[in-house]
């Protein structure tokens, strides 16, 4: 994943000549493992599980979840 982010950032840098924009793109395409673990822990603390958090706080019902899976995973 990090390799793809690096390649995309390099392409942005090449096409735009904007190193700052390229770095922003790289940051947006990556996530720190510590950050995501902390986010999941906070969701579990708030609602008991990540799935419950997504349903209760975000409103991600089964229909919406299936739609997102079709769009991004299949």
TrEMBL record:
Which domain of life does the protein's organism represent?
Bacteria
Task: Give the matching InterPro entries.
Answer: Prot-tyrosine_phosphatase-like, Tyr/Ser_Pase_IphP-type
Q: Which GO molecular function terms does the record list?
A: phosphoprotein phosphatase activity
Tell me any Pfam family this protein matches.
Answer: Y_phosphatase3
What name goes with this protein?
Uncharacterized protein
Q: What lineage, starting at the top, does this entry show?
A: Bacteria, Bacillati, Bacillota, Clostridia, Lachnospirales
């Amino acid at each position: 994943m990090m390799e793809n982010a690096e390649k995309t950032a390099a392409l942005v840098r090449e096409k735009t000549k904007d190193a700052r924009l390229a770095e922003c793109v790289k940051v947006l395409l990556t996530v720190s493992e510590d950050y995501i673990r902390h986010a999941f822990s906070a969701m579990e603390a708030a609602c008991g599980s990540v799935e419950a958090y997504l349903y209760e706080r975000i409103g991600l019902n089964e229909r919406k979840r299936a739609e997102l899976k079709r769009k991004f995973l299949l």
